[in-house]
Amino acid sequence: MTLDDLAATIAARKDADPDTSWTAKLLAKGPAKCAEKFGEEAVEAIIEAVRGDRAALTSEAADTLYHLLVMLAACDVPLSDVMAELARRQGTSGLTEKASRQP
Ligand SMILES: N=c1c2ncn([C@@H]3O[C@H](COP(=O)(O)OP(=O)(O)OP(=O)(O)O)[C@@H](O)[C@H]3O)c2ncn1[C@@H]1O[C@H](COP(=O)(O)O)[C@@H](O)[C@H]1O
């Protein structure tokens, strides 16, 4: 599975029955709830990273990526736009980018 596959699945669930789809249930609650859920999962991933539990971190990272995609869908931000932004940044060091910012 690719992130594009998962994003397509999430998009396909937008109009699904919330009683049969977690994605539809979350999207029906709106962007703020989707953002809250993403934040919860990100914190859980942070905790497992600090604990050094690689298996638990793998699971929480999957939750976090999935809920990031749900939040993007809730906010009508296509994954392709995010990937285009990452492509725009490719080849420029993060140190160089940071140093180039106007004060
Ligand atoms: N990748 C996921 C995915 N990751 C996590 N989740 C659900 O997100 C929910 C997270 O809620 P909770 O935080 O309460 O559950 P939890 O994280 O296990 O519990 P805590 O540790 O947070 O307390 C759980 O119901 C998980 O099953 C996901 N639900 C769906 N997907 C994908 O989306 C597809 C469509 O799913 P539906 O929309 O449900 O049809 C699925 O086939 C999967 O490919």
From TrEMBL:
GO molecular function, one term: phosphoribosyl-ATP diphosphatase activity
Gene: hisE
Source species taxonomy: Bacteria, Pseudomonadati, Pseudomonadota, Alphaproteobacteria, Rhodobacterales
Subcellular locations according to the entry: Cytoplasm
Biological process terms in GO annotation: L-histidine biosynthetic process
Organism: Loktanella atrilutea
Protein family according to the UniProt entry: Belongs to the PRA-PH family.
Catalytic activity: 1-(5-phospho-beta-D-ribosyl)-ATP + H2O = 1-(5-phospho-beta-D-ribosyl)-5'-AMP + diphosphate + H(+)
Pathway: Amino-acid biosynthesis; L-histidine biosynthesis; L-histidine from 5-phospho-alpha-D-ribose 1-diphosphate: step 2/9
Cellular component terms (Gene Ontology): cytoplasm
The protein's name: Phosphoribosyl-ATP pyrophosphatase
Keyword Amino-acid biosynthesis: yes
